[in-house]
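Our example copied in:
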Amino acid sequence: MSTSIDKAEVIVTSPDRNFVTLKITTADGLTGLGDATLNGRELAVVAYLQEHVVPLLIGSDASRIEDTWQFLYRSAYWRRGPVTMASIAAVDMALWDIKGKEAGMPVYQLLGGASRNGLMAYGHASGKELPELFDSIRAHQEQGYRAIRVQTGVPTLKAIYGIAAQGADVGDASVRYDHEPARRGAKPVEEDWDTRAYLNHLPGVFEAVRNEFGPDVPLLHDGHHRMTPIQAARLGKDLEPYDLFWLEDCTPAENQEALRLVRQHTTTPLAIGEIFNTIWDFKDLIRDQQIDYVRGAVTHMGGISPLKKTLDYAAMYQVKSGMHGPTDISPVGMAAAMHLGLSIHNFGIQEYMRHGAKTDRVFEQSFTWTDGYLHPGEKPGLGVELNVDEAGKYPYEQAYLPYNRLLDGTVHDW
């Protein structure tokens, strides 16, 4: 059976949002898909793939996944970064997809087989005020979610990250804000921020949620990089009575020493890394046990191969996975995360935000969602196929994530 790569196509489609997909075809007709979506910078990855990566793939051996990964990472000399790593990730995923199809097995079997029956996932509840938030939590529980991320509006702030109901206030009213925060248009939407107001408001919200829903529901919260280290330490400490499953991205992750300060002041578990690109971003945080969950995404960490290595390293320190999984990870990237999560021993939880109906028609998926647990399914490979005709109905539309300004007009972390 010939496994040489005969063709590699970069497909851009925008059903519910923009997605970048790499489709590799071998000389014997096997196909594999990889997700290369980089929210708000999709075309940069398209150019990197089309102009630099695809020409290097033609004629190479599709079975040599590790060798191809090392070649693409090391031969460019300019390493790392989201554009490079999303491009390499797409190749890695597509080659694992092909290898699974060639073997007649789902990818998780090639990674060592299942370590569990399914993957517990968390949903994204939000509300400007408590009644709306409570309704959102109940709605997610009715959908089967056992763990809930809680995001809340803050008095005096018009629009902040993660609040679904404010979609009608800023941008396309037909799109749920937590479904896709990137707004289509020529420039990003401006939102406002006040850290002091947020820190004062949030503990009361979690107290109300615990009083309403009891002590047993795993609750999560995303700080989205907006606090200084000492502010994050205060929040972690203030939230301790409400027993969070984790506090995510409490401070900008580039400053890894910041997590040491946060850790010194709170026992609230910490999750970090959705904007990380390689194991080098995580290495010291894991070794020094400054975090509890690795938030890396298969799509942005260079693929299944390097993220598995990162999580194997994390397992030595009892650090678990919490892979990134919003709707700017395509169904292909989500499937890759599910296969990896099912196989590793130190799985923690999987972020799962449901894609829209148009996206589900473009990407035909085999995964299941049952009683709060995900499973990638038993189809050979990743279990996702691209409907090219359907994808062609939705051309690329320019879109940007929002950005923040403080009350005095200073640009702040979003």
User: Anything to note?
Assistant: The radius of gyration is 21 Å. The chain has two domains: 4-105, 111-379.
